[in-house]
Amino acid sequence: MRTVFPSFHFAVDRLSWLLLALFTSWIVLGSADTKQTSWPLHPKKPVIIVWNAPTQDCETQERVKLSLDQVDIVSSPAQGVVGQALTLFYKDNLGIYPYYDTKDTEVNGGLPQSVSLSQHLEKMSKDLDTYIPDHQAKGVSVIDWEEWRPLWIRNWSAKDIYRRKSRELLAKKNSTLTQGQVATAAKEEFELSASNFMLETLKQAKSLRPNQLWGFYQFPDCYNHNFKGKMDSFTGRCPDVEYERNDELNWLWNESTALFPSIYMSSDLRSTDQGRLFVLNRVKEAMRVASVGDGLTPPVFVYSQPTFRKEMTLLTEVVIFWGGASYATRSGCSDLNNYFRGPMGRYLLNVTTAAKECSQKLCKFNGRCLRRAPDSAVFLHLSPTTHKIISQSGKLKVRGSPGQAELKAFRQHFKCQCYNGTKGEGLKYFKFNKSIIIF
User: Which residues are glycosylated (predicted)?
Assistant: First the structure.
């Protein structure tokens, strides 16, 4: 593995793997016909860090003020918190979501083909008024519906109940059908209803809250968990059939204005090269499906869960660090604060500054840097000969500017992915259309 500046590699080894492969959404894509993408959430910041954990009580109850200076958006996944820059919607607070609970009891009809779409959309409108009261609010909205998947074949294990109940429902309505006919028709009815339910949800969401970026959590998925007992030969590549299945979801990628893959990894993969490959391929697949269609490439928001051990994640346009209630204890708040004030904070500052400098020098701030060779192990890091990270008044700061070696490395290893409305090699000549900027 190599970085743009190999002498800075020690920082990667010392720090948690938590951020090693940072930079994949714009770095892994490198084809000659790279599509334009939307402008970043914040001007002149090609990479955004989001903290999405219920740590709001750290300061008020535990008397620990978190040092989140390197975080651009702070939000809580708690359902009682409203009007945030990032909002999570669950199965019980956005419309009428049909599912079966852990006791196999149907809720809201249980199946997407058994719920009233009009009633769902009506309640959804009211829920949006509750959680995003400002109709023109700019932000990110994540729909976290995990009970069933829109592709029939992917409802395995505990989710098989949706296939079984779909067959039972169809057999009751059509008693003359053979078992094979029931299986075929049930699959078609389920997938049609599931896709329609998700599509209409997205359409209404974008209509009622047009300045939000909308998508579904864990979409797309790569299903590259086939490392058990095969660590030595594990490549991290998504199974071929999963590429094909994700292609069947083009209707979803085309309607989504953001994608939210997860890169949570098993403890078996932490601190391993296989872990890097696991994450790399999951984000590469997200970027592949993001490029479908004729419109702009939607931003990819990678969900990661920080731990106080060595692990690795990737940084895309946006990395969302998610956490549960365990972070909101006295010890959890204290450990987390030390983490942000220590190596994690320093590395976040390092790579986000490097991404910003590459965007500035190579793209005139009108695009983000992409690897020229998509699979090369080249990463953006600040050179220790030209930059220094210091602590000033309790906050981390960067001193220095890119030297000639860094500028040469930018040109050698990276190229620009233009933001919407810009053009020209190196973005030396660009056309700026203010009306198309969302953030």
Answer: 350
**Residues that are catalytic:** 146
Decide if pLDDT at 323 tops 80.
no
What does the buried/exposed string (b/e) look like for 214-251 if buried means 16 or more CB atoms within 10 Å of the residue's CB?
Answer: bbbbbbbbbebeebeeeeeebebbbeeebeebbeebee
Residue 307 has pLDDT above 60, yes or no: no
pLDDT of residue 376: 76
**Distance between CA atoms of residues 358 and 367, nearest Å:** 10
Q: Give SS3 for 381.
A: coil
Q: Is 341 helix (H, G, I), strand (E, B) or coil?
A: helix
pLDDT band at 321 (very low <50, low <70, confident <90, very high): low
Strands (E), 33-180: 48-52, 73-75, 86-89, 99-100, 106-107, 139-143
Q: Which residue has the tokens 């259309």?
A: 433
282 phi-psi bin (left φ>0, alpha ψ -120 to 50, beta other): alpha
Q: What is the CA radius of gyration of the chain?
A: 23
The per-residue b/e assignment along 397-422, b for 16 or more CB within 10 angstroms, e otherwise, is ebebebeeebeebbeebbbbbbbbbb
Cα–Cα distance for residue pair 226/238, rounded to 1 Å: 9
Considering the entire predicted model, what is its pTM? 0.84
Q: How confident is the model at residue 169 (pLDDT cuts 50, 70, 90)?
A: very high
| 107 has pLDDT over 80 | yes
For tokens 């810009």, the residue is 422
H helices of 27-159, in order, are 57-60, 117-131
Kindly list the structural domains of the chain, giving each domain's residue range(s) and its CATH number in brackets, ordered by start.
6-85+138-146+217-436 (3.20.20.70)
Instruction: Give the residue, 38 or 46, on which the prediction is more confident.
Output: 46
Question: Which residue, 4, 37, 3, is CA-closest to 368?
Answer: 37
CB of 292 closer than 8 Å to CB of 255: no
- Strand (E) positions, 90-233? 99-100, 106-107, 139-143, 212-216
**pLDDT of 306:** 59
Model pLDDT, residue 110 = 98
